[in-house]
Amino acid sequence: MLYSIIVSAGLETIAREELTERFGDTGHLKILERRPQRLLFHYKGNPRDLLSLRTAEHLFLVLKRAPKMTRSRSSLAALSGPLTRFNFKETFECCRQVGINVRKRTPFRVTSRLSGKRNFRRLDLQRVVERALLDRGWYLAKSGASLDIWAEIHGDDGYISVKLSSNDMAQRSYKQAHIPASLKPTVAYGMVKLSRPHPEDVFLDPMCGAGTILLERAFVGRYRYLIGGDTSTEALDATIANFGRQHQPRQFFHWDARTLPLQPNTVDKIVCNLPFGETIGNVSQLTNLYRQCLGEYARVLKPRGRMVLLTSQRKFLDAGLKQRRSLKVSQRLTVDVRGMRAWIYVIRPR
Ligand SMILES: C[S@@+](CC[C@H](N)C(=O)[O-])C[C@H]1O[C@@H](n2cnc3c(N)ncnc32)[C@H](O)[C@@H]1O
């Protein structure tokens, strides 16, 4: 069966690694293509396993892929035409395996997405797919449970898929308490993976907010110690609530990340979503904050350690790094964080 997952922009490589790590040895996986925000792969195992992918925002079963879509309206037929004689037996079986209750006359709805210049509208795409299914005796859902069919055209690629995941695939059940500007767990997972987790890690998030990064690290596998801190007591309360009793040993501190009460060379990994925006301060306050934090992080990090920092204010981080020659950037990724461009820096001591 052909599947696709949708991931946040910038996380495609990490998603590919996750798929390979999780299913590469099973002999059930064959990754076909990496597209912007999308991975296409064949998988022979139970699709329920795919719902636990930590990078994925959505999971689809691809019914039809048309790789040569053009601007012309006539290319719509190439995408929707095969639906009129498509055998849905395996599709329905796959839906049942992930808990979608399909019956012979399950109502459906079509969601359409279109990018690039076309001589037709998104609604035309939607209608043509609806028509093909109505002609087979299916009927459109008015409300409530239904089969979620997606029709998409991006660049040359057209897809008709069934959405197998619910809208909260990328949410985590641990996230009970929230704070503003809390990080998307999928991005937090990506940052954790970039830190190259190791069972002996002393792992620090000095500005832990609601604890998303620390919790993603905890779920990835063994570690020696988790440390988190924040200036905000509300944020720390949220971290403590989200951790519950699980994931020992760990310790949380009410602190200012500019003066960490930690010994030099004691931390293996620092992963942190740096603050930004007017609530934190003006340009000179932010420049100072970034510079001072980098100084502290460099002090507590072990010589073979690794920092992974996320910011949407690249200029402050670049300015801080310029002054700190003992650190070098080994990787930089552009990511999309809630519609805003941001950068993940992987930084190592020289
Ligand atoms: C962008 S949020 C981090 C969100 C977190 N990654 C999450 O998913 O919930 C930044 C956090 O940094 C904290 N913060 C800001 N300045 C700080 C400082 N000087 N020391 C420690 N924490 C600070 C804020 O209170 C906020 O919780």
Mean pLDDT: 94
Class per helix and strand makeup? alpha/beta
Q: Any idea what the CATH architecture of the largest domain is?
A: 3-Layer(aba) Sandwich
Q: Summarize the amount of helix as a percent range.
A: 25-40%
Task: Please state roughly what percent of the residues sit in beta strands, choosing from under 5%, 5-15%, 15-25%, 25-35%, 35-45% or over 45%.
Answer: 25-35%
Report the uncertain regions: none
Ions and ligands: S-adenosylmethionine
Looking at this structure, what is the CATH superfamily of the largest domain?
Answer: Vaccinia Virus protein VP39
Order of helices and strands: EHEEEHHEHEEHEHEHEEHEHEE
* CATH top level class name of the largest domain: Alpha Beta
Query: Total domains, how many?
Result: 2
Radius of gyration: 23 Å
Number of helical segments with 4 or more residues? 9
Walk across the major sheet and give the strand order: 2-3-1-4-7-6-5
Major pleated sheet: 7 strands, mixed
Total strands = 14
Give the N-terminus to C-terminus distance in angstroms: 46 Å
Describe the structure.
By secondary structure, the chain is of the alpha/beta class. It has two domains: 162 residues, VC0802-like, CATH 3.30.2130; 165 residues, Vaccinia Virus protein VP39 (Rossmann fold), CATH 3.40.50. The protein is 28% helix and 30% strand. The protein has nine helices and 14 strands. It is elongated and about 70 Å long. The mean pLDDT is 94. It binds S-adenosylmethionine.
